[in-house]
Amino acid sequence: MPASHVTNGHMGDTSKCVLVTGGAGYIGSHTTVELVNAGYSPVVVDNLCNSSFECIRRVEEITGQKIPFYKVDLLDKPALEEVFQKHCFEYVVHFAGLKAVGESCQVPLRYFRNNLECTMTLLEVMQSHGVHNIVFSSSATVYGDPQYLPLDELHPAGDCTNPYGRTKYFIEEILSDMVKADKNLNAIVLRYFNPVGAHKSGKMGEDPHGPPNNLMPFVAQVAVGRRAELSVFGNDYNTPDGTGVRDYIHVIDLSLGHVAALKKLDDKCGYKVYNLGTGKGQSVLEMVEAFKKATGVTIPYKICDRRAGDIASMYADPTLARDELKWTAKRDLQEMCEDLWRWQSMNPEGFGGSDSEQKSSDTESGKESILGKHENNNVATPETATAQV
Ligand code: NAD
Ligand code: UD1
């Protein structure tokens, strides 16, 4: 290792260093905790466009470890290069991206620019620094309207119903082509089903900006009194109770799927695609009932029209991940709902406030120093970038 390289900011640290892009976001932050628990050394890069530095501070509180953090936009290649100069990464877990389906229909170019260019820049920088292992956050949305259920990885992909989904599909294709061209590169695509829940401590969870698009964050905000009632989008689908059926997976199980994927990369696996889901489908009304059972809170709801672009049912066949990654989802609906409710009731306003930059620039000196530093230079040193716990 060159003398200038540090692993997780610490000279002599021999644990395997992982770059987590988008690590201040919902899934990235939970995965960062599980990476630490599994003995890896995560380094986070995020531009905080949909997250806050407070989340990194909570990761440090939970793990008792300093997490090197860089407020860097992945579109900024020189800044990213600098991060790669400072750390000797063995793996990259690539969460960074924009993810709002509705918004992607209104401003598709923003989604293509951000999600595709981020990934291409990242791959170029990885290539120039000899980093050969990447895990990519894809989505079950790449399957489009299911031709059969459960969805296995052989189901046709690419017939997406929105630009967001297409960015995921295009990135999968880019990674597949890259692996064909470079025998040293290993890329694992993880197609997530519907992540819900939060860290057991109640310190970390999903903190959507504005009204939540997804079901369970909306349910939690109704429960905590931030929203009056849930709108159930259609009860005339061809499902047992007429409401939409999805495969909800606890965010910790999902995070552990990434740890399993890193181990698979050690086998020099080339290009691989895995579903991360439970294999079970639950309807909207079943989720409302499960939330009540777990928390005692009744969710008022009204039945509304179907949401444009929605499908009736989708759930995973998770067999391939079980067989090849030795991973299965273990946490049940009760635990998903209890953990979601603990997070939401302990943090009714999420990480606090609706503006992510504002959230990141309050009084703590660690936060001030990172944001202040980035006004002049997109890359902070790990020392100044790391929150003090
Ligand atoms: P999130 O918005 O909470 O996290 C994404 C993070 O990426 C945010 O912190 C954001 O600030 C950061 N980011 C975005 N553009 C960036 C850029 N140009 N440079 C640096 N950072 C940037 O979302 P999440 O729910 O944690 O999702 C993580 C990944 O998983 C995303 O790629 C998403 O598309 C994918 N995914 C999510 C779900 C879901 O239901 N949450 C389902 C399937 C796939
Ligand atoms: C959405 C995205 C999908 C993404 C996934 C996980 C759309 C069209 N699709 O899928 O691309 O991969 O999230 O992030 O947005 N529901 C209500 N009321 C609500 C919210 C949702 O009834 O207020 C219903 C929906 O109609 C659906 C179910 O709840 O039947 C789940 O919805 P949601 O959480 O948005 O996830 P997906 O539709 O699976």
Describe this structure in words.
This protein has 389 residues and is an alpha/beta fold. It has helices at 26-37, 53-63, 77-86, 101-106, 108-128, 163-181, 215-223, 251-265, 284-295, 319-325, 333-346, 356-360, 365-376, 382-385, and strands at residues 17-21, 41-46, 69-71, 91-94, 133-139, 186-192, 194-196, 230-233, 245-246, 248-250, 271-276, 282-283, 301-304. Strands 3-2-1-4-5-6-11 form a seven-stranded parallel sheet, sandwiched between helices. A two-stranded parallel sheet has the order 7-10. Helix 1 crosses helix 8 (251-265), helix 3 runs parallel beside helix 5 and helix 9 (284-295) packs across helix 11 (333-346). Mean pLDDT is 89; it is low at 1-6 and 353-389. Nicotinamide-adenine-dinucleotide (NAD) is lined by residues 22, 24-28, 46-51, 73-75, 95-99, 114, 118, 137, 139, 192, 194-195. Uridine-diphosphate-N-acetylglucosamine (UD1) binds at residues 101, 139, 141, 165, 194, 213-215, 218, 230-233, 244, 246, 284, 307, 309-310.
Q: Key terms for this structure?
A:
single chain, 389 residues, alpha/beta, seven-stranded parallel sheet, two-stranded parallel ribbon, 13 strands, 40% helix, 14% strand, disordered N terminus, disordered C terminus, binds nicotinamide-adenine-dinucleotide, binds uridine-diphosphate-N-acetylglucosamine
